[in-house]
Amino acid sequence: MMKVAIIGLGLIGGSLGLEFSKNHCVYGLDNNQKHEELALQLGLISATIPFEKLHEMDAVVIAVPVDKIPNVTKEVLDSITDKTLVFDVGSIKENVCNSIKNHVNRKQFLATHPIAGTEFSGPNAAVKNLFTNKVNIICEKQLTDTKQFEKFIHIMGSIPMRYVFMASAKQHDKHIAYVSHLSHISSFMLGKTVLEIEKEEETIFNMAGSGFESTVRLAKSSPNTWTPIFLQNKKHIINSLDEYINNLQDFKKMLQKSEQENIYNSLKETNRIKEILP
Amino acid sequence: MMKVAIIGLGLIGGSLGLEFSKNHCVYGLDNNQKHEELALQLGLISATIPFEKLHEMDAVVIAVPVDKIPNVTKEVLDSITDKTLVFDVGSIKENVCNSIKNHVNRKQFLATHPIAGTEFSGPNAAVKNLFTNKVNIICEKQLTDTKQFEKFIHIMGSIPMRYVFMASAKQHDKHIAYVSHLSHISSFMLGKTVLEIEKEEETIFNMAGSGFESTVRLAKSSPNTWTPIFLQNKKHIINSLDEYINNLQDFKKMLQKSEQENIYNSLKETNRIKEILP
């Protein structure tokens, strides 16, 4: 049984607390006192812990919004000894990896990205089995002490996840911009476009079931979570947006010219996604 | 027990056959002979029927691809008497309504759009309960004979659906462009953009679960079904695409300038979709 502290008790931090509590002593802290109280009530953590005591932990998990992760991680690394593992669970990896790359305790740190979530946020959003059978991307494992990495695997051990290793945090951020962040923006802007035209909300509701519901699902996501993600990864996201907008404009031109065969081929080619995501 | 013929034995026609077979004698025809044989084997219909015998039916359902619906409907209306109801189930309504608006048998016809589907196509895609609790949009009901409309309700009676009436087929096509067709294009182009950048398909698979799967689901849809839909409704779709692209470009500009508050507000405002589609 290890002592694990979680900083940031929202959807991800809270859900990790639920899992870790099965086998470990879980402590928590959050700069929102109500979140701490709620996390205690909901059994996400067994006690709160002040920042000054984090050095007593076997592991510290950084689960704050992505724009706060670099500073919080640096402060935690400043305050621990070589007996503590620190890992973050943010969806951007280059900002935190760069900010602590020369830190004396760099080898105590592991950059992780468990790809899981719902459109809800805060301690109330914490759910069991959020991470079950999901992918966890580990970046720059080569810079983490082997013993600390083994401890990480031990702590995460009770959660069945598929681990993927990426040597470069920058590569992670580029790929995730396309596969995750662009999906969220396409969904948010689809929701916005439909809301603008459909002043009578009844029409949207009446026509639901038409494919709109699944494509717009991500537009229910929390602006508190996603505004910093988009800003932190803006370079890669802007590239992906440019390519997405180009593809939409090309499609529009084909439609304008009624290019039946080209439209068919474009759709058919994209059907390849069936083989990758069956 | 009524005699109902279905022209076009794909996903929609086949699934209707399954439902109607519970209470009626269901006949089918398809210009693809293999589809007819398959529909018989699968029990979607109890017999095939030649076009020349359609006038013997109580009702004829037009379930061919949307670009074929106007002509097929016209030919069927040419060949029946006032004892037969004809209704189509296509996802575009203006083309068929306009093409038969002056037909001597116009009052025998009902324009319907049961909003249901999957990404699969052909007789093998036919499934039970495809229409259960879905919306069925009826256009221009005012132009259909009351007795024929009552027959329609009788035939559809065993399927629990929510009926929505729109006096104007043009209004239907405009709304459906935003709520359904734009969703499909945004999904297809998202799939295309990600496939182009992610040459290594493993990366897509590894990063699945990141929201990409739900937003790209519609990109698995059949090009045979969707190419004609996009072309038939191109005017309204191009308008919706223009607004969607504008919103994406505005979002990109906010990102470029790191306008945190504007991005937050845009996402927050779009969250309203939660209240409409809970």
Which secondary structure elements does this structure contain, and how are they paired or packed?
Two copies of one chain form a homodimer.
Chain A: E1 3-7, H1 11-20, E2 25-29, H2 33-41, E3 47-48, E4 59-62, H3 69-79, E5 85-88, H4 94-99, E6 109-114, E7 135-139, H5 146-156, E8 162-166, H6 169-197, H7 201-207, H8 212-216, H9 223-232, H10 234-256, H11 260-270, H12 273-276
Parallel strand pairs in A: 1-2, 1-4, 2-3, 4-5, 5-6, 7-8
Antiparallel strand pairs in A: 6-7
Helix pairs in contact in A: 6-10
What is this structure, in a nutshell?
The structure is a homodimer of 278-residue chains. Helix content of chain A is 49%, strand content 13%.
Plain-language structure description:
The structure is a homodimer of 278-residue chains. By secondary structure, chain A is an alpha/beta fold. The first copy, chain A, folds into 2 domains: 165 residues, NAD(P)-binding Rossmann-like Domain (Rossmann fold); 105 residues, 6-phosphogluconate dehydrogenase C-terminal fold (Orthogonal Bundle). Helices cover 49% and strands 13% of the residues of chain A. Chain A is built from 12 helices and 8 strands. The first copy, chain A, has an 8-stranded mixed beta sheet with strand order 3-2-1-4-5-6-7-8, sandwiched between helices. In chain A, helix 5 links the parallel strand 7 and strand 8. In chain A, helix 6 packs across helix 10. At the A-B interface, helix 6, helix 7, helix 8, helix 9 and helix 10 of A face helix 6, helix 7, helix 8, helix 9 and helix 10 of B.
